[in-house]
Specification:
The complex is a heterodimer of chains A (320) and B (635). Chain A has 320 residues and is of the alpha/beta class. In chain A, 32% of the residues lie in helices and 18% in strands. The N and C termini of chain A lie far apart (62 Å). Chain B is built from 21 helices and 24 strands. The longest helix of chain B is centred in the last third of the chain and has 21 residues. The chains are: A alpha/beta (320), B alpha/beta (635). Strand 2 of chain A pairs parallel with strand 17 of chain B. Chain B: It comes from Marine Group I thaumarchaeote.
Chain lengths: 320, 635
């Protein structure tokens, strides 16, 4: 029986603030899962801590709500042990780029075949609005006592530099576009990163829905226009077409340059994609030839309560 | 009395082949039928600092080192300065005669506290601060000295074999030292050549050169006279294996079906992960090959996170770490606790606090392991007493984790990890695999945290058909969704915490505590002190003194009633541990509500010898001991 969008929703009460950008992301994720027809029990959503951490409870697949900053570690372990599973990890920008930044970089280097979505809103919402890693230096959101004293992390740039092989940005109020991006990310062979701009209506009074819509710019132009534009509507080609240093470097550099665009024009869409770099599963397969057919989670380890692993050769070699 | 009880010591700068020398020596002795207890001591350093290896050899069962060294071989000055006084009066020292004039200032790696102590001692004996000076002391004590010019050996060898390259091959000093020793004790030489072949099996040419050097040195030393000790071989116990410290848990993990191990490099734990990775492909009866995915992570937080993620798929998963790494894992241990995830953490302790003595021994982390993690949640802390035990215990730990669905911390330590011992071949058929309530299929509505009579819910795994569940580090309802309801909270807490009593009820007594007899004086202890304690007890027995010993393996939950009943006739309780505060003693007092009469503690970073335990126990029996006996043997 074909699965419908409703099948991917749980009846857990959603306690996000009215107007929260998170709703768009969870909807897009459910739509993407439904459109791809991924069986509910063959997918796991891992989540970090914070408002976004609750995401896994709203989606009717396996859901693992982990620790602050550590979502990628749990998700990679799950995927490596059971590579048949579709794995999506989600978390806030504080979770992934503050406390979890080390894991973010290491995950990029590993390139495990899964998707990581950051709910990027510039504030720590659940602890009442402190500055998070993507808030710009000198900006003062509503609950800050003084302007932010730290420079902001560039999530796209960091992902590209760390080895993520699919790097994209979405906007939580463009749900259809975001859904399409999630599908691309999940289908990508390797670690896909999605930075989703997500207004926090309660604590971020700078990067609001109206701000992204360009309302403040409206007086200067006759036509009210959005700050957001789509890379795919331009000549931008994010894909690494062949395995050549010049080609790869050019695609990495243009992604980095593009990621610096901010202010009146903010690009969304795919910044970089390289499927020529081996996913971690293939690297493991080089060591363990039958890893994909017989991964850790599928291995038989006992019969009638007794072990079936034969270590006699090892023990023979130790006999004196 | 055992007819052979011989301790050999080899020392040299780190990187000079002390360890491979000791491996050859151990292998030769083991092949000739002897029991071996070897122990490696080294600095936190790659090259240059002093490392040494003692190998005790006997024709009886031995489980520890003793204080006295029978034969020391050294190709550097530092070894002699540090160890000359350990050699017993009719023992021997083989040393490089080129070193006789070296004084303490000439050995830059001698640290000043040691030098000060040595100088004071030499002054009191009216000796110069030179190798010649310390050797005189040894000689006066009755130690036989065997000066050998290592340089000349190479020169003569180069000439004899017409291979001038040999002249400068000082890398062979270790093999020369071993061969001189074996020649001196008249150990048959064929086993020596076989061992060299095995060790250099991939480098034929090097093996040949080493064998020439070995042969030359062996013959050279067999001309020495006046050495009372000879080891000519004894009856070999069938199915004896020679193992290094981490083999028990490593091979145990393979047999127990651990298929995922994530780790971050740390001494002395990473040897286990390296071993698992180098034996990654596993032979499985009537099945396609299995494998262990061994993942080196960016830190210990990631190691435990990944391991929990893997465990959620139903894979038996583990990590191996030491104190500082374990400290980073504590938040996630709590997560595994509240989510009832079976995980096994193999904790190879070393001396703390902080980085502490990173390559030295300590049983410092017992209380930490018992209390690791925020909040109240159940876990099991289980301690192995020796390498052989650790093999079987690894199997048990995975069963406890699966059956009770809780984190298990398997306590090991540096004393065990850097030992090389002979023991009975591990028997995989004595390991059972009990996966508890792990499900293979799910029918009908599923609740991961369903309330049940025994407090344990059937466990689905990520990816299982119809088995969808949720996890959260928050308190949850039966489905695993966040719940802050006060009534549910009480039920969930009670459900989880009931595992502690359940574990005490279901784990067989003989897995909880091993009693080696209880007497008027009885020792309580845990972990690697077992070997030296048992050897000390045998020494006391020979003097007609009965000493009891209760080895506590299950430390959390604490088997209070069992321990109480075992100690019911004991008047004097003696706690022996390698830490400062007597951590097991504290747990004992808290649970048994009885005082510890004496503590024998060691926190110098070196393992206990049976000699020093024997000395303290004897003082206790004779009523001459301090309440707190602090041991300090070992360089």
């Amino acid at each position: 029986m074909a699965l419908k969008l409703a099948d991917y929703k749980t009846d857990v009460h959603n306690d996000w603030c009215p107007g929260c950008g998170d709703f768009g992301i969870v909807n897009a994720l459910q739509m993407a899962l439904a459109e791809m027809g991924i069986e509910r029990d063959k997918a796991t959503i891992f989540s970090g801590i914070g408002c976004s951490g609750k995401t896994s409870h709203f989606i009717n697949t396996y859901g693992v709500h982990t620790l602050h900053g550590r979502v990628l570690t749990f998700a990679q372990g799950g995927k490596l042990a059971n590579p048949e599973m579709t794995v999506v990890a989600v978390g806030g920008d504080g979770d992934g780029l503050g406390i979890g930044a080390g894991h973010f970089v290491a995950a990029g280097r590993r390139n495990v075949d899964m998707t990581y979505i950051i709910f990027d809103n510039g504030v720590y919402g659940l602890t009442k609005g402190q500055a998070s890693p993507t808030l710009k230096l000198g900006e003062q959101t509503k609950s800050l006592a003084s302007p932010n004293t730290n420079y902001d992390v560039n999530p796209i740039g960091l992902a590209v530099a760390s080895g993520f092989t699919f790097v994209a940005r979405g906007y939580s109020y463009d749900v259809r576009h975001l859904k399409d991006l999630i599908i691309k990310a999940v289908k990508h062979k390797g670690l896909a990163f999605l930075d989703v701009l997500q207004p926090c209506p309660t604590y971020n009074d700078i990067n609001t829905r109206d701000w992204y819509a360009g309302v403040d710019l409206a007086q200067e132009s006759i036509e009210r226009h959005s700050r957001i534009y789509k890379l795919e509507d331009t000549q931008f080609d994010p894909l690494v077409h062949y395995d050549d240093e010049v080609e790869v470097n050019e695609k990495l550099s243009q992604a980095l340059i593009k990621s610096l665009e901010w202010g009146t024009k903010i690009p969304i869409g795919v910044f970089y994609q390289n499927e020529l770099i081996s996913p971690y599963s293939i690297r493991l397969k080089d060591q363990i030839p039958n890893y994909l057919e017989n991964p850790p989670a599928k291995q038989k380890i006992s019969e009638n309560g007794l072990p079936i692993t034969n270590v006699s050769k090892i023990l023979d070699s130790l006999e004196v | 009395m055992s007819s052979v009880d011989f301790t050999w010591l080899i020392g040299g700068p780190q990187g000079s082949g002390v360890e491979s020398g000791a491996n050859i020596f151990s292998k030769v002795c083991a092949e000739m039928g002897y029991q071996i207890f070897g122990k490696r001591e080294f600095y936190s350093n790659i090259k240059g600092e002093h490392s040494y290896f003692t190998v005790r050899v006997s024709d009886q069962q031995i489980r520890s080192n003793v204080n006295d060294v029978t034969l020391m071989v050294s190709f550097d000055a530092e070894t002699i300065f540090r160890h000359f006084n350990e050699v017993s009066s009719n023992g021997g020292i083989i040393y490089d005669s080129e070193l006789e004039d070296v004084n303490t200032e000439g050995v830059r790696s001698l640290d000043s506290p040691f030098k000060e102590r040595l100088h004071k001692y030499l002054e009191s004996k009216n000796k110069p601060f030179t190798i010649g000076g310390v050797l005189e002391i040894a000689k006066e004590k009755g130690v036989n000295l065997y000066p050998v010019s290592f340089k000349k050996i190479l020169e003569n060898l180069a000439q004899e074999t017409d291979n001038p390259k040999l002249r400068s091959l000082i890398r062979m000093y270790n093999v020369i030292g071993v061969s001189l020793s074996l020649g001196l004790i008249k150990m048959p030489s064929d086993s020596l050549f076989r061992s060299i072949d095995t060790i250099f099996s991939k480098k034929r040419q090097i093996a040949e050169i080493n064998k020439q050097a070995a042969n030359y040195s062996y013959n050279y030393a067999s001309k020495f006279e006046n050495f009372d000790h000879s080891l000519t071989g004894t009856t070999k116990e069938p199915h004896t294996i020679l193992v290094q410290g981490h083999y028990g848990t490593s091979i145990g993990k393979m047999v127990a079906g651990c298929r995922f191990q994530s780790y971050y490099p740390i001494t002395p734990a990473s040897d286990e992960s390296d071993y698992l990775e180098s034996h990654q492909i596993l032979e499985v009866q009537n099945n396609r090959p299995g494998s262990t995915a061994v993942i080196q992570t960016e830190d210990e937080i990631s190691a435990i996170g990944m391991m929990i993620g893997a465990a959620l798929t139903g894979t038996r998963s583990s990590t191996s770490t030491s104190g500082p790494g374990f400290a980073l894992m504590t938040e996630a241990i709590g997560w595994a606790g509240i989510n009832e995830v079976p995980i096994v953490i193999t904790l190879y302790q070393r001396s703390g606090p902080s980085t502490g003595l990173p390559t030295r021994h300590g049983q410092d982390d017992l209380l930490f392991a018992v209390h690791a993690g925020a909040g109240d949640f159940p876990k099991i802390v289980y301690a192995s007493g020796d390498i052989e035990e650790s093999f079987y215990d690894t199997g048990r730990c995975f069963n406890y984790a699966d059956v009770f669905q809780i984190p298990v911390i398997h306590m090991m330590d540096k004393f065990l990890s850097s030992s090389v011992v002979t023991c009975k071949r591990f028997d995989p058929n004595k390991i059972t695999i009990d996966r508890g309530k792990l499900l293979d299929k799910v029918e009908g509505e599923y609740k991961r945290f369903a309330f049940t009579d025994d407090g344990i819910s059937p466990r689905s795994r990520l990816g299982l058909d119809n088995g969808i569940f949720w996890n959260t580090g928050d308190e949850s309802d039966e489905y695993g969704h966040i719940s802050e309801d006060p009534v549910e909270r009480i039920k969930m807490m009670d459900k989880r915490m009931s595992r502690l009593d359940l574990a005490l009820k279901r784990i067989p007594d003989e897995e909880q505590v091993i009693s080696f007899g209880a007497h008027k004086h009885t020792i309580i202890s845990w972990g690697s002190t077992k070997g030296p304690i048992l050897d000390a007890i045998s020494m006391l027995k020979k003097e007609g003194i009965d000493m009891g010993f209760i080895q506590i393996k299950l430390i959390h939950p604490f088997p209070t009633d069992l321990v109480k009943s075992l100690l019911k006739d004991t008047k004097i309780i003696i706690d022996i541990e390698a830490n400062h505060s007597g951590q097991l003693g504290q747990i004992f007092k808290q649970n048994v509500l009885k005082d510890i009469n004496y503590s024998i503690l060691k926190y110098s970073g070196r393992g206990m010898t049976s000699t020093e335990i024997f000395d303290s126990l004897k003082k206790i029996v004779e009523n001459k001991a301090d309440k707190r006996e602090v041991l300090s043997h070992g360089a």
